[in-house]
Specification:
- InterPro entries: DUF1963, YwqG-like_sf.
- The protein is mainly beta.
- 11% of the residues lie in helices and 30% in strands.
- One zinc ion binds next to loops.
């Protein structure tokens, strides 16, 4: 079976898992303090000083601010209301990869809509980029999530006598043999990398959805922030970061990253 034939046979399974996602369209320069943006001047809580790193004490850099009330209409109320913000230490502090890191080297939060005041000045150094639109794309789940979703690859590593790698999807009565086919399926049923809103996470080392501290539920992708995309920063060795949110407690957001 060729890769194209395999993909065609799996089409009904793929169609059920596809999710809409959006790439940000940006323009150089800062906008209003409430605009969606990378870097630039954000809104802060009333009377709040610019957030500092809990590790080194230096000001955190604003990486992302998203106005949840100005996202594509198709998302409806999925992510709630207010401003999602990610501040991050660009110094030598460790621990920023970890959601809810206790060192305070990142700050990921939701400012309620209609509250707060513009920051007086931005101590950051990144060039601001305003998000002026959203380009839709169709996203597919990462290979590391296929098994959980019913598309199983069995390598038969320890089989004696030797057995070829098999890919099985009972939901659509699919079965194929061979490492090349398995590899092609994993490569072609995959999420977009780069910066994007919603969709499926492009995982670095494995699915890492933080558990909501309020209810224990797995948190869902809100925004994928890649190394050196719209923010001129490298997470570890070309890592990819994810802002996640509890589907029930929409004020609970977190940021973590992993190397690819
Ligand atoms: Zn720091
Ligand atoms: Zn929750």
């Amino acid at each position: 079976m060729t890769a194209d034939e395999a993909l065609a046979a799996l089409a009904p399974w793929i169609a059920k898992r596809e999710r809409p996602a959006w790439r940000p369209t940006v323009e150089e320069g800062d906008g209003a303090p409430t605009d969606s943006k990378f870097a630039g001047l954000p809104l802060l809580a009333e009377g709040e000083a610019w957030p500092a790193c809990g590790g080194c004490g230096q000001p955190l850099e604003l990486f992302l601010q998203l106005d949840l009330d100005a996202l594509p209409d198709e998302l409806g109320d999925r992510y709630g209301s207010g401003l999602v913000q990610l501040f991050y230490c660009t110094g030598d502090c460790d621990g920023g990869w970890e959601p809810f890191n206790s060192e305070g080297v990142s700050l990921c939060r939701v400012l309620p809509a209609g509250a707060g005041a513009p920051a007086a000045e931005n101590p950051g150094t990144f060039p601001p980029q305003r998000i002026v639109g959203w380009e839709p794309l169709v996203d597919r789940p990462h290979g590391m999530e296929h098994e959980r979703l019913g598309l199983v690859t069995d390598y038969h590593f320890n089989a004696v006598p030797y057995r070829p790698t098999e890919v099985i999807c009972e939901e659509v009565g699919f079965r194929a043999e061979g490492m090349a086919t398995a590899k092609a399926i994993a490569e072609r049923i995959a999420p977009a990398d780069g910066d994007k809103l919603a969709g499926w996470p492009h995982w670095g080392q494995g699915p890492e959805r933080p558990a909501c501290p309020e209810c224990g539920e797995a948190m869902e992708l809100l925004f994928q922030l890649d190394s050196e995309a719209n923010v001129p920063f490298m997470f570890g060795d070309s890592g990819v970061g994810h802002v996640t949110q509890c589907p029930t407690h929409k004020q609970v957001v977190a940021f973590g990253w992993a190397c690819c």
